[in-house]
């Protein structure tokens, strides 16, 4: 086998067996390629022989190239998975990854926008667009992110069969997992308005949201539209499309939603990913307390 054969088998395992996202597949395969280039290895047994001290040395070199804590942690996670897979391929009866702890990460708090800001952003991307149908499109996308808590990739993966939305919508999230999310009346109306104005035929199997030439709408176009709107509104750079999903979660939690329900709505694999929103909500409550309390 060659290094290319190893990487192709690893890519196929991630994409077909583990159903990882294309972004994750690219990142994990790239990390494995860097390890093979540094340590060599033409077969599974050679990769399987990688131990913790080898990884430590490799990551030290990567840190010397300017890799930060978060990127180092991601690289380590990818490499441990690759080595565990290699050991399984080599017939190791205990194909566990080397034990090595990554750098400690300071988990940042999401910065939600207010409900008024979310609505203003959606309206402004409509007003700033060069064509009416493009403005209707961008408004519909942002309302799906804020009103239903979708990831931008989930919104852009919707097809023409989703154009006539009801009160709920079934979406496919990370790892191919499906979930049902609510759709607000304002969002349903926005999607219907876009579908009526769109100059391209919205067939059931084709993307719902189209680019200016009729192809699938890219995430970059949505991000640019929101960047223009946030600058016009004087909002910080943290007001991104993904922050609308954070806002959906934070506002639901403030209204009394429990964490398990929120986990289902967001499509988080673990409750730990959802629990960060309790910190956001506590911070907001403390801020309000300090403003209102006479001794604050």
Concise overview:
With 296 residues, the chain is mostly helical. It has 13 helices and two strands; from the N terminus they run H-H-H-H-H-H-H-H-E-E-H-H-H-H-H. It has a two-stranded antiparallel sheet.
- Contiguous helical run count: 13
Mean pLDDT: 79
| Overall number of strands | 2
CATH class of the largest domain: Mainly Alpha
Low-confidence stretches: none
The percentage helix is 55-70%
Overall structural domain count: 2
Principal-axis shape = elongated
CATH superfamily caption of the largest domain: Intergrase catalytic core
| Estimated structural class | mainly alpha
**Sheet with most strands: strand arrangement:** 1-2
Describe the protein's architecture and organization.
This protein has about 300 residues and is mainly alpha-helical. The chain contains 13 helices and 2 strands. The protein has helices at about 5-15, 20-40, 45-50, 50-65, 70-90, 115-130, 130-150, 150-155, 185-195, 220-235, 240-255, 260-265, 270-290, and strands spanning about 170, 180. It has a two-stranded antiparallel sheet with strand order 1-2. A hairpin with a 5-residue loop joins β1 and β2 (about 180). The chain is elongated. About 30% of the residues are buried. The model has no long low-confidence stretch (mean pLDDT about 80).
